[in-house]
């Protein structure tokens, strides 16, 4: 009986490079593609989204300012990442560790900085579900609003960006309370864990501020019109 128990326990401790070393990944299979290949493939996908988005905004709204062009491209890119890459995690989180699909391999590579992505952590599954299925479609809708120059774009922009910033804050907070999920090499912490998420923090803060300024200016103009009418 003891031999059977030991055999079962050993089967749950498959060799891997994730932290803590004791984390159980019974269905884990190492990536077939190299890190450079994975990053290159994902980079090509992102570059394609950026290129198509830029061409689209130039054709559909030639009079768009540079600021609106950049905002449109960003909304398309963040929408793509949320609705496809992060949705892949939500849908396939239970089998990612043993999958060789491109997005699964990318998640396995990123998980070197946070192994919870391979253990179906409840918080991450819930957070990524909101990000994928709420912020993803909303980002594409905001991109549409930019194309048609709809004023609702700024209010929705605040909602999306605040959601992204809030999600990052929660993610950083829950991770920093226990960094044992990240490998000890600084590369994984500072580049994968910190930098990749900080991008959404910085840009989210920028578009939140821009939205607030635009909405405030609109209300200020309305107040000025009301005052002018009363004076007359």
Automatic annotation (TrEMBL):
GO BP, sorted A to Z: sterol biosynthetic process
UniProt domain EXPERA: residue ranges: 67-208
Localization, UniProt: Membrane
Bilayer topology term: Multi-pass membrane protein
Presence of the UniProt keyword Lipid biosynthesis in the record: yes
Main location: membrane
InterPro entries, A to Z: EBP, EXPERA
Family to which this protein belongs: Belongs to the EBP family.
Full protein name: EXPERA domain-containing protein
Organism the protein comes from: Penicillium canariense
Taxonomic placement: Eukaryota, Fungi, Dikarya, Ascomycota, Pezizomycotina
């Amino acid at each position: 009986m003891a031999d059977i128990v030991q055999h079962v326990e050993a089967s749950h401790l498959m060799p891997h490079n994730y932290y803590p070393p004791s984390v159980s990944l019974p269905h884990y299979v190492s990536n077939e593609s190299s890190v450079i290949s994975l990053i290159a493939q994902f980079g090509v996908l992102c570059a394609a989204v950026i290129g198509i988005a830029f061409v689209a905004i130039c054709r559909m709204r030639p009079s768009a300012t540079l600021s609106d062009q950049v905002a449109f491209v960003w909304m398309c890119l963040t929408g793509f990442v949320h609705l496809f890459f992060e949705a892949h995690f939500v849908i396939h989180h239970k089998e990612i560790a043993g999958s060789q699909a491109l997005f699964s391999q990318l998640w396995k590579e990123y998980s070197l900085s946070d192994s919870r992505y391979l253990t179906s952590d409840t918080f991450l599954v819930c957070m990524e579900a909101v990000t994928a299925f709420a912020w993803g479609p909303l980002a594409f809708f905001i991109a549409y609003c930019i194309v048609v120059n709809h004023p609702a774009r700024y209010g929705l922009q605040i909602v999306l960006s605040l959601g992204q910033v809030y999600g990052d804050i929660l993610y950083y907070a829950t991770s920093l309370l226990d960094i044992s999920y990240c490998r000890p090499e600084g590369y994984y912490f500072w580049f994968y864990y910190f930098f990749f998420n900080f991008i959404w923090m910085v840009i989210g803060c920028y578009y939140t501020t821009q939205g607030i300024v635009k909405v405030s200016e609109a209300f200020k103009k309305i107040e000025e019109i009301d005052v002018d009418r009363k004076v007359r």
